[in-house]
Specification:
Strand content of chain A: 25-35%
Mean pLDDT of chain A: 82
Number of helices of chain B: 20
Low-confidence stretches of chain A: 125-131, 134-141
Distance between the termini of chain A: 83 Å
Number of domains of chain A: 1
Distance between the termini of chain B: 55 Å
CATH architecture of chain A: Beta Barrel
CATH class of chain A: Mainly Beta
Strand content of chain B: 15-25%
Largest sheet of chain B: 7 strands, antiparallel
Radius of gyration of chain A: 22 Å
Number of strands of chain B: 30
Shape of chain A: elongated
Largest sheet of chain A: 5 strands, mixed, barrel
Structural class of chain B: alpha+beta
Helix content of chain A: 10-25%
Oligomer: heterodimer
CATH topology of chain A: OB fold (Dihydrolipoamide Acetyltransferase, E2P)
Amino acid sequence: MKKSHILVLAVIAAAIGIILSTAGDVSQYVSFKEARELAAEGSPTKVHVVGRLPRDGQRILGLEYNPTLDPNYFAFTLVDTNRIAQRVVYFNPKPQDFDKSEQIVITGSMRNNVFVADKILLKCPSKYVEKDIKGATASVN
Amino acid sequence: MLNTFIGDFGHLSIIVAFVAATVAAYSYFMAARNQPLGETDASWLRIARGSFLLHGAAVVSVITCLFIIIHSHRYEYYYAWSHSSNHLPVYYMISCFWEGQEGSFLLWIFWHVCLGLAIMRFNRKWEAPVMAVFAFVQLFLTSMILGVVLLNVKIGSSPFILLRDFLTDLPVFKLNPNFVPKDGTGLNPLLQNYWMVIHPPTLFLGFALTLVPFAFAIAGLWKGELTKWVKPALPWALFGGLVLGVGIMMGAYWAYETLNFGGYWNWDPVENAVYIPWLVLVASVHGMVLWRRSKTALRTSFVLVITTFLLVLYATFLTRSGVLGNASVHSFTDLGLSGQLIVYLAAFVVLAIGLLWYRWKEIPITDKELTTYNSELWVFVGATVLCLGAFQVLVTTSIPVYNAFLGFVGIKSNLALPADQIAHYTKFQLWMGVLIALLSGIAQVMWWQKNDKESLTNSLTVPGILTLLGASLIILLVRYNKLQISPVYIVVLTAGLFGVLANLSMVLTLVKRKVSLSGGGVAHIGIALMLLGILASAGYSNIISKNSSGLLYSREFTEEINRDNVLLWRNESAPMDGYDVSYTGQYFEVPGLPEYVNKEVLFRTDDEYKALARADIKQGDKVYYKAGDTLNILPENTYYRVEYKDKKTGEAFVLYPRAQANEEMGGLLASPDIKKFLTHDIYSHIAATPDPNKEKDWSEVKEHVLSVGDTLFVNDYFGVFRGVEPAHETAGLGLKKGDLAIQADFMVYGEKKQYHVHPVFVVRNRLIGRVPDEVEDIGLRLSFVNVDPTKGKFTFGVSTTQKDYIILKAMQKPFINLLWSGTLLMAVGFGMAIVRRRREARETVAAIPEPATARRPRALRQPEKVA
């Protein structure tokens, strides 16, 4: 049973390698403060930041997107869970449902005082169960 | 109005199905207890069969009730209201059925019923123990849709819940408890696709099929028949591998056609949750084949068959418990069933692993030492590689689970999935693919011959040389086309080619020898082709909408920023990587017409789904509608017509990427359109459009006083005022008797075509109303301001707006057809293997006469042995 023993050892080694390598690739949810610290240390890893958009009533403050000048440049301000605001740029068109989002998850890293995002995940209220019926109030009269 | 009967009947059917499954599970268990395989207690068996048939009938009744509710638009039921709407065609109502968790559970339950009946019919000898496991699974699955509250614990979520019981806080129900909404919220538009009609049933059939080998294995362990279960289980396992594999690829194809991440596989946790069990299932098939051929790897087969089913349960837990939350775009909304799902998973983990532990020492092992020249060794290594690949995906996909678990025991954890998932998974899965391609080639060649050093070298020489030649040729071609090829890609290419050629040479040799057809060989060719297709289409996916303009903002980041989207003004052509591309307008889909219809020739009415034809609508040489006719439209989707013209060859084609301004989902849902060529696909989707919710900014209105026949100059266009005519009865006017309505007839000359413009002027009770008319193509609005009948002069107001545009992303996917054709070949290979293994399984069944069911008085039963 020598060969099979070798095989078992190889499998165990591979499995351990997979786990360690995955642990190295795992990203984490951080605040902007930690993201800045990571960037200052020169760490190239990308992080996830969860935040909200600063609003003045319904209007979102600090959105910058002018497609006719540059369709691939979108900048906004995001406030993380510790209330730290940070300018974020995204080199893609502005996601159409951006204005409606309650919570936003971005992945990317800090560079020269701006956070360069390469992915934006939006949590729209509509992703949850609908709680309202259109026309329900009108039809009662 | 409010029909509660059908829902009550459906709910009753669920309860009957649950109780019948419980009775069936217990009586099958009693029927098989303390008896050798093939002998059963007849009276228990009768009860068991009866209750399983009753369970099946009840399940069919539940499905029928739910479908009637959806089909007849009974919006008093939450399921119909939240998944369907009035304008949905019947085939999408089928998709509605499994859009929700409850419906997809039902689908799964239904397949189990079908498979259970097949086993009752074809595997008599194994019926009692296998069906005991089946009914036990059904008991858990039906409990998921029970919707009963016991001792303050909610068990299951019923699809028959009334809207008023779900949205209890809505004031409307306090005023009028019998209120029924007029329309539902509709089916997620991304799911309105023919793949979504057939992909879920395929996938769930695949899920259901993993239960069959599992149930056989458990029955074998239970009855101490540790070797005989493999033969009847193998065809089922192959069938599962086929269906699940095809189901996964259907999902991939749907994503490619419908979502806009630019590919077919996104390593989303929900995709992975199905991919993992499939890999282990395929590995288990290899284990079983090894046992059938050379009596090795039986323990491996047991472990893998059981693991496959447990992984299906784990996948169910992942996708349905809400644990993925932020991590996945496809997972179901949380119905609060996590506890129940964990119980379901835990029950089978404990049962299966406990039984295996109990019998482990008795499972026969071979003392034959495997040597390098045994094909078995290489098949075994291949199965191991598959399992390691599955393990890798499992470790990463479970990250949200670790978070949840640590949070549950009170440790705060903020792990997230790798930021660059594609790079992370590719790092491992690429090498898994390479090893599989190489091993499948080598093992397949060795499988069919007696091997020693010499014979092996001989049979591998031809495919080896051809592989190296082919790979060199392809590398030269890639270089000739000024593309890079990295060493890693060279390895993948060589391995894929070897996999194709080695398997092909073996299949051809066998055909020549007229020995038999090797399904395995054909499936392996398919897999290797898929690998090559993935290498070409993902590794050389080329964004052709690269944009070098507008570097205004991003100077500080120019070195590594991809600028992948291009802005196209309406009717202005722009160069794009060897093509001239122009966006030429917005179109609607009209049922019954072969092509889309330009919005410019449609006059929208108050009813969103109806429009008037402004001009004759002609497609081909047939006129479908005359000017003024009313036609039905599907208003949800806007199709943006994009013309591609090859600069070199002058060949042109048109794509209609679609977008949907959707309030519910928030914003714009864009789906690509794909032009398929033999060697590549051109894939384009809309990245952004002017915000449809924003009012357009119109310029200051300029007034012009004209006589009939005058010409009007606006920006770069001119229009001719050709006369005044009585206005058509158009929507929104609601003309009454005594009203006067006239419209002007303008002909405006644009860059490419002319436009009829008809601003309307209405007089009612001395009040004046004006209905302006707009030409979207050129951003022009005309209103009919005033009439001076004495002088024969007419005043018109003209205002202009910024022209319409789209922002487009387009890419080229080389040789993606290899992936799809490889999938088909893989399916064919599986099919051939099923036919062969079924025949084997039958031959032995025919040889053994049907054993009579033994009746024993109860008193003589031996005490139970099995824990």
